[in-house]
Design a protein that fits this description.
about 400 residues, mainly alpha
């Protein structure tokens, strides 16, 4: 491939990967805000309605391992096509739903296809990126932007065009993006590389085993915190800040967007810290500092809660570049899809235990206050586990591996 074509191809690879990362988070979080409208229109409780999203959240993680295995076996590019059309089609099905069961099935479709991105798109970009640190830093920001935009997009479309449009419009845009991706492939602008553009040294076997077991625990904790807060924040703000927001769904969506926009900014900070300091130290600090912030969030019933929530989400984002860099460092290239698949089974699948707690806690207590106590303990456990990771120093020269978000 000529030099200019290679540069353009790498740019398109980064572009489509970034957009897909944003979509993977946006589409799985639209319902968390739309449910506030359905409470009134379908005359069901929040606990009943939010429970409909549990299969989506389970599949968002559970299907990741199969997607990673398929990418290692058949290549990532075909699965990226399936991602765009599956997620877009699932969103349109959700907009057509007229019963809770139909909504549950449509949301499960969204989760199943959205699961493709993380174990497929992140290794796909790692293989093609000339400068991994920069590419995955940008990619991580898009993941945070997708998370941040979900509540606002859903709120605006639901308020002005109806809740069905909040599924239809993003779904149609996703389908168009899939068509553009196919056009780029057929035009020869994107070609899947046979090996890493920026290879890295193989890790020691002992470090691989140790990192595998320790990171399984830490990634589960980070996933629990991220997934649970992603679903719960719209309702928390609706209950605690309704007087300040004049009971506006757009207002709630706007506050959630501010919180996750902070996470997008902190993604850059996390990438810089991961380049300059010990990955283990950055990873541990990002989780430990969340412990006192969870305690503070528990007692706040004022707009200051938005700021504290922004710091919580921001710290989760700060830790993600180090997490993905550590995972890539200790994973052989031929197993990368399955390794990231296993990660997202934990962070987006098993971690739905936390999501399942949201309706349970709300039904039993009438609020989500207790949720912060649970997440406080999770943050403490995750932070403690990070100190068991293999020792390592700052990577020299080229980036040690992907530094993206799971907020990715």
């Amino acid at each position: 491939m000529p030099a200019m074509d290679k540069i353009r191809g790498n740019g398109l690879t980064l572009g489509f990967s970034c957009v897909a990362h944003a979509y993977s988070h946006l589409f799985t979080l639209l319902y968390a805000t739309i449910v506030l409208v359905l409470e009134r229109e379908w005359h069901l409780s929040y606990a009943e309605l939010i429970a409909l999203s549990l299969p989506m959240n389970v599949m968002f993680g559970a299907a990741a391992l199969a997607a990673g295995w398929a990418a290692d076996r058949w290549g990532a590019t075909p699965l990226m096509i399936v991602f765009y059309f599956g997620v877009g089609g699932g969103s349109i099905l959700a907009g057509l739903a007229s019963t809770p069961f139909a909504m549950l099935l449509a949301l499960a479709v969204i989760g199943s296809f959205a699961a493709i991105y993380h174990p497929v798109g992140i290794p796909w970009l790692a293989k093609h990126a000339v400068n991994r640190g920069r590419a995955f830093g940008i990619n991580g920001i898009f993941g945070s932007v997708g998370t941040a935009a979900a509540a606002l997009i859903a709120g605006v479309l639901a308020d002005y065009l109806g809740w069905r449009a909040a599924f239809f419009v993003p779904g149609a845009i996703c389908l168009v993006t899939g068509l553009a991706f196919i056009a780029a492939l057929r035009g020869g602008f994107i070609v899947e590389a046979s090996e890493d553009v920026a290879p890295q040294p193989a890790p020691r076997a002992a470090d691989v085993k140790r990192a595998f077991f320790v990171m399984s625990a830490t990634m589960l904790c980070t996933g629990l915190m991220f997934q649970t807060l992603s679903v719960a924040l719209p309702k928390i703000f609706d209950e605690r800040l309704s007087g300040f927001l004049n009971d506006s769904i757009v207002g709630v969506g706007g506050m959630v967007t501010i919180v996750y926009a902070a996470g997008a900014i902190m993604q850059i900070v996390g990438g810089e810290l991961a380049d300059r300091f010990s990955l283990r130290t950055v990873y541990a600090a990002a989780q430990i500092v969340q412990v006192p912030l969870m305690a503070l969030a528990l007692v706040l019933y004022s707009p200051a809660l938005v700021g504290v929530a922004a710091f919580l989400i921001g710290l989760n984002a700060v830790g993600q570049p180090a997490e993905n860099a550590l995972l890539t460092r200790y994973t052989p290239a031929k197993w990368r899809g399955r390794a990231f698949g296993a990660k997202f089974v934990l962070t987006l699948g098993v971690s739905t235990i936390g999501v399942a707690l949201v309706p349970v806690i709300h039904r039993l207590t009438g609020s989500l206050d207790t949720l912060f106590i649970v997440l406080l303990g999770v943050a403490a456990i995750g932070g403690a586990c990070t100190f068991l990771l293999p020792g390592e120093g700052r990577a020299k020269g080229a980036s040690a591996g992907p530094v993206g978000s799971a907020a990715e």
